[in-house]
Fold this protein.
Amino acid sequence: MNPTGGALRGTDPLYGDGTFGATRRRKNGTPYSHEGQDYLATLGQDVVAVTAGVVSRIGFPYINNTHFKYVEITTASKVRVRHFYVDPASGIVVGAPVVAGTVIGTYQSLQSKLPGIPEHVHIEVIVGGVAVDPRQFIP
Ligand SMILES: [Zn+2]
């Protein structure tokens, strides 16, 4: 299920492309791959679980920054799905079961971290330790 109901994030001049596998560059120029798929979001909106499973982690996307969070849900078949930039709702704690569409929290604006970026939720799907294209799972 789409986590925000928004469109796929396309390309913008400041930050590039939100598509899974898009090439990014570190400040020193080293290329790397965008390991998630971005979905446009609006300020303060609810974010829903893209799949059923159990909350397996509340994590932090950025080193030395505890404001931004992600919610990881592990499915019955051990696929890990991470929903980035979400302030978890009450009850969304490790061990809590969810179904697809359960509200897991509120979208956190990225503007303080990445000024000018289109607001979006970043979804990562990890199968056997490897990031795969979330669009396979989110029609
Ligand atoms: Zn992303």
Q: What stands out?
A: Residues 18, 34, 36, 38, 122 surround zinc ion (CB under 6 Å). The chain has no helices and 14 strands.
